[in-house]
Specification:
- About 30% of the residues lie in helices and about 25% in strands.
- The chain is an alpha/beta fold.
- The chain folds into 2 domains: about 5-20 and about 195-325, 3-Layer(aba) Sandwich (Peroxisomal Thiolase, Chain A, domain 1); about 25-190, 3-Layer(aba) Sandwich (Peroxisomal Thiolase, Chain A, domain 1), CATH 3.40.47.10.
- The strands form 3 sheets. It has a 10-stranded mixed sheet. It has a two-stranded antiparallel sheet with strand order 1-10.
- Helix 4 links the parallel strand 5 and strand 6 (about 130).
- One of its GO terms (molecular function) is acyltransferase activity.
- InterPro entries: ACP_syn_III_C, Thiolase-like.
Length: about 325
């Protein structure tokens, strides 16, 4: 694979707070077309890149990933944002800002992927901000920063857009995970909503590893579980909710052995660590969490009143965890 650098902040940082706002609405788009790990490896090798063997991925529960072949990146965004904006228009909910998360493209910053969409809905005045530093842990970074937005705009909603599309076969696979194309939109409000956000904890470890630093990467691979356990324990302690009341633990689709280990070190029963979508979608960047929440609801594993934990992991030691609760009946997901 091509050389890349895994890096995070220059010093260890832990931020945690009890909050009370809502995930009021969301929409997810996953392409129907899928590629197997064998097909992706073949495509990548034809372009001159090297990969691990197929078995290195399948033994970790990684088999397929969705691949968008018809819609552009902007059209994927439109697919998830349009229904959310339509429901806001119906309810009269005002949006204050749009935050955009994207981890897969390079040199895209001069493009405004929602310009045409906002013009269509007469929302050109809305400011658009992009987040990059937290990569696949961006969902929880957004949760951490959202209370600051609500302190200034208590009557307005925050719209989070996440969209990733691999523009080259090498963008779909690295030594650790298989990436799928996806898009999602989440609407957060201070008052009312379907899912309540109670407690958030984010941790950033101050380490920098180049992919040629095999010793450093090996150390990271054996110690990052401690970071996961730390944010998990901190959220439970701060919230006062015992593990027995947590209905599901829903995280990013990295690989099955990793989440099995997380369950062991955190004392989470196997049937409460949600891994139902990993084999069919691979890792969906920052859409993983919300897609898995939707999937768990559709399969009857999350019901009104249930508490659940969400986890996200970013390269280099970025961890996020939040205590959330279903507070309204979902109509089969969005």
């Amino acid at each position: 694979m091509s050389s890349y650098t895994i890096m995070v902040a220059s010093e260890r940082e832990i931020t945690m707070q009890n909050v009370a706002f809502y995930l009021t609405d969301f929409s997810v788009y996953i392409p129907e077309n899928k590629r197997s790990i064998a097909q992706l490896i073949q495509q990548i090798q034809k372009t001159g890149y090297t990969t691990k063997d197929e078995a290195d991925y399948t033994e970790r529960g990684i088999f397929y990933a969705p691949v968008e072949e018809e819609r552009s990146w902007e059209e994927m965004i439109e697919q998830v944002v349009t229904p959310v904006l339509a429901r806001c228009a119906t309810t009269g909910q005002r949006i204050g800002q749009i935050w955009l998360v994207q981890s897969s493209l390079k040199l895209w910053h001069e493009r405004n992927p929602v310009k045409g969409l906002l013009k269509k809905w007469e929302l050109e005045h809305l400011p658009l901000f992009t987040l990059e530093e937290y990569f696949c842990a961006s969902y929880h970074a957004v949760l951490q920063m959202a209370p600051g937005f609500f302190s200034l705009h208590p009557d307005e909603a925050l719209l989070l857009i996440v969209a990733d599309k691999g523009m080259h076969p090498s963008c779909r696979l690295n030594d650790y995970v298989m990436f799928g194309d996806s898009a999602s939109a989440c609407l957060f409000t201070l008052q009312g909503g379907k899912h309540k956000i109670w407690t958030i904890c984010n941790q950033i470890d101050g380490v920098v590893y180049d992919d040629e630093d095999h010793e450093g990467l090996s150390s990271l691979g054996t110690t990052f579980y401690l970071g996961i356990r730390k944010v998990f324990q901190d959220v439970l302690r701060k919230s006062g909710i015992p593990l027995e009341q947590i209905r599901q633990v829903i995280g990013t689709n990295v690989d099955q052995p990793m989440w099995d280990m997380v369950g062991q070190i955190c004392g989470i029963p196997t049937d409460r660590v949600y891994q139902a979508t990993l084999s069919e979608t691979g890792h969906l960047y920052s859409t993983d969490v919300i897609y898995n929440v939707q999937h768990a609801i559709q399969n009857g594993l999350l019901k009104p009143g249930d508490y659940y934990l969400t986890f996200s992991l970013g390269f280099g030691g970025v961890y996020g965890c939040a205590l959330q609760q279903v507070v309204e009946e979902e109509q089969g997901g969005r």
